[in-house]
Design a protein that fits this description.
- By secondary structure, the chain is mostly helical.
- It has 8 helices and no strands.
């Protein structure tokens, strides 16, 4: 279900972000959103969710935009621990890695790519790290402050995600 949801969104969103919204068929996007939402209701949350809630709740950043910025970075962080599980995502986007596919896709649909554009500053990073590492969620790659610091710095600047 997750892969079909990603496939549907990857197919639909580029068309929906061009032209007037009423000129597009929203069915494929709604199908993808339903599939992905259903999956989220059945699984545990990991690094991406933890980072987004720490940033959103701690700094009043906008919810959807924060998720868009963090997703490629969280996937890059985790991808080194479970490359086989994320390989189908890379295949959907036609890229070598899932995080590269998500980064390219974000740029294609003009999604935000930096936390600074959402209002976070470099001075906020120590507190963001405190919030993100307090009561950490399970993740395939262990969550540590030292490992998250460069991830958040890249996300702040809008730099490429790295594993």
């Amino acid at each position: 279900m997750a892969l079909e949801g990603i496939r549907a969104l990857a197919s639909a969103l580029p068309n929906l972000t061009s032209g007037a919204p009423q000129d597009h068929d929203w069915g494929e996007a709604l199908y993808g959103a339903w599939l992905c939402g259903t999956v989220l209701g059945q699984v545990g949350m990991a690094l991406h969710h933890k980072l987004c809630h720490a940033l959103g709740g701690g700094f009043n950043l906008p919810h959807a935009e924060t998720h868009a910025v963090i997703l490629p970075h969280a996937v890059a962080y985790t991808e080194s621990a479970v490359p086989n599980l994320l390989r189908p995502v890379a295949q959907i986007f036609g890229t070598a890695t899932a995080h590269q596919g998500l980064s390219d896709f974000a740029r294609q649909i003009s999604a935000p790519t930096s936390l600074v554009a959402l209002g976070l500053t470099a001075a906020d990073l120590p507190r963001a790290l405190d919030l993100a590492t307090a009561n950490p969620y399970w993740n395939p790659r262990p969550i540590t402050r030292d490992a998250l610091a460069p991830l958040l710095a890249r996300a702040l600047a809008g730099d490429a995600a790295q594993s």
